[in-house]
Design a protein that fits this description.
By secondary structure, the protein is mainly beta. The chain contains no helices and 12 strands.
Amino acid sequence: MPVVRSSEAVVHEMHGARFVSYASPRSGSTELCAWRGEIPAGTEAPPHSVSREEIFHLLSGELLVTLEGRTERITEGDVLIISPGAVFGVENPTAQPATAWVTTSIGLEAELTDGTRIAPPWAN
């Protein structure tokens, strides 16, 4: 039975946030990737588009999310569905950290608005 212990999760850091990878090809997954995103207070991630659908479930805290030019505040328990190609940005304007659980399919790539392409290791 494939079990990924929390002590075995791989931690990555980018743009001021932490990505704690649990399910990826590295851990034995063949279709999906899943990670915990930790967004510190005052963090603003750069807008980007993704190549695959992402499901973003906010576990704790509050965030301002911008999706295709529309900004909304999301709170604990809310889920955001991000379509491939949609421009997405996250900001934590609060004094508390926020935590999310994100799931996507293997092979996701992100493109920043300046054209920089990223193949995040937690999703590949």
